[in-house]
Amino acid sequence: MIEFRNVGKTYPDGTVAVDSFTYTVGDGRVVALVGSSGSGKTTLLRMVNRMVEPTKGQVLVDGEDVATVGRVALRRSIGYVLQAGGLLPHRTVIDNVATVPVLQGVNKKEARAAAAELLERVGLSVAMGRRYPAQLSGGQQQRVGVARALAGDPKLLLMDEPFGAVDPIVRRDLQDELRRLQREIGKTIVLVTHDIDEAFNVAHEVVLLRQGGVIAQSGTPQEIFAKPKDDYVRDFIGADRADRKFSVHEVNGSRIIVDGDGRPAGLLQ
Hints:
single chain; alpha/beta; Rossmann fold; 2 domains; six-stranded mixed β-sheet; four-stranded antiparallel β-sheet; 13 strands; 33% helix
């Protein structure tokens, strides 16, 4: 469980990245922090592993204030996935994945064997372990990034715009893969994204932020979409877009779902 207790971040030049944020992320939940640039979502994420130190308030993981934990030990205990993968270019894929276990004292041979299993779990072949990051596609690099983040068996996984650098088709595949992984391994995940569709697709709960880390609305995707709190939320989630509005048409004995522009969107079973 992660608890944000009245946390805030003001930089020396007076810029307020986060004013006052309070929220609890439950065990085994995927929570998406969503907002435009300047909403403080990445700042909040980085407070958890102390890449950013709050100027007020507390962040607790399983009841322990992260400020009392050494940065190195804390970061090795938390999985972290970056937008561009953040892989070490001079190391093979298998050694990238094995990095944290080796640093934690695991025998290199054992760490590599476990890394090979993780590659398969994220949908990559073991043979890819011999390649270097530059020899992989963007989507493959992101899968390796997820495998590396999981290698130390963290209870908590932080993901900062993890799929923002890949094309839309690969992005959707990676989102589906993340949902499958979460069902299998039950990690607590905090995901930062500016894409509300991505948040709705992968998260159990969505926290939509205004400037300065102010919560505009939070809840399940269904709750937010069913009842936007105000015009800001309605506009952000695109509640009034034609492709969000659906109706059912009978065509040759089948019930077809169409959007507000009359385009087919699916088949009703």
